[in-house]
Amino acid sequence: MSAEMQSYIDEAEQALLHTYNRYQVVFDKGEGVYLYDMDGKKYLDFVSGIAVFALGYQSKEYNDALKAQIDKIIHTSNYYYNAPAIEAAKKLKKISGMDRVFFTNSGAEAIEGAIKTARKYGFLKDGRTDHEIIAMNHSFHGRTMGALSVTGNPHYRDAFEPMIGNIRFANLNDFDSVMAQVTDKTCAILFETVQGEGGIYPATEEFMKKVRALCDERDILMMLDEIQCGMGRTGTMYAWQRYGIKPDVMTTAKALGCGVPVGAFLMTEKVGANSLVAGDHGTTYGGNPLACAAICKVIELFEKQDVLANVDQVGAYLEKRLDEIAAEFSCVETRRGVGLLQGLVFDRPVGDIIKEAMERGLVLINAGTSIIRFVPPLVITKEHVDDMIAILRECIKCKC
Ligand SMILES: *Cc1c(COP(=O)(O)O)cnc(C)c1O
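That is the input. Now the predicted structure with pyridoxal-5'-phosphate docked in place:
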């Protein structure tokens, strides 16, 4: 590493709060599916800023759209209408099949909105103020107090107790465990369609359908967190779309703005008409013209570049190549995932393998301690997968 890059890292460690154990690299620019550090070293990127930069870096049309918006107006208040937000909401409704949109600045903030929607929906139904939400063990929904309260991982929560109240936990894909938590106070059931941080566990079709039926029967809101698994990552715009069901409320973020911080929570007309009203919720930045210009262009480019077809093809290929790795190395227990959201489960911590990969010019990320997560830009090709596999194989050989 150059002295210059090292000095940046030293300064960062002086100035930034130590909430991350960062890899020893300063990334300087991106191009396509490659990142470059300050010293000009090139890296193949299989992280995309954690499932964010779906279209790859330096998409000219995306950059041009943002520049044009900057030259017009970056921000107005939500007390006024702005054209990019109207267009973005229309497009988001179309790709999701949901009816009402609230734009946020992040994923966690979208979860906060979903929680408030559920509580208000319950309140309007029976006037009670002790409603319960059922969330899942091993889930991840973000770091704010509300989002943390529905995150089923004590490691993230313990030091920050007390959480918001009346959250009960069940297990994904174990419908009986959900039933065991249902009471007459339950107002919502919340889970990720594919658990991300928790270890790349897709919900089963049976689980989805049973939860849907339960929610219909008892007028409980089915709320799906699509912040990581949505926006094409599994081959449909939203991961729930392959299950033949529809949630009442959903959250989206990460790849939605492809790098501009933005998220949203969406709901059906029925929920919209029976939950949040003027004065109940707000945000200064959420859905500002710059963020919404990004959303508009992202959704447009998804269609124009047929990103979903690429995810289907390259996702299937990635699956096959990772299965080969799982068969070849005894330290790899299994592969699981959908589309371009994949995990390789090891019998040991994967930190050293990921560090070795960085040395060899490949950016990977973990999910938990023993899983390598693959969340590349959605525009990668089979050749990129081959390049990644070649480096990964060397790293495993050298560290297992
Ligand atoms: C990343 C993530 C969040 C939190 O999003 P932030 O933008 O980091 O607040 C919530 N849910 C899931 C499933 C995520 O992957």
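The two ends are 26 Å apart (CA to CA).
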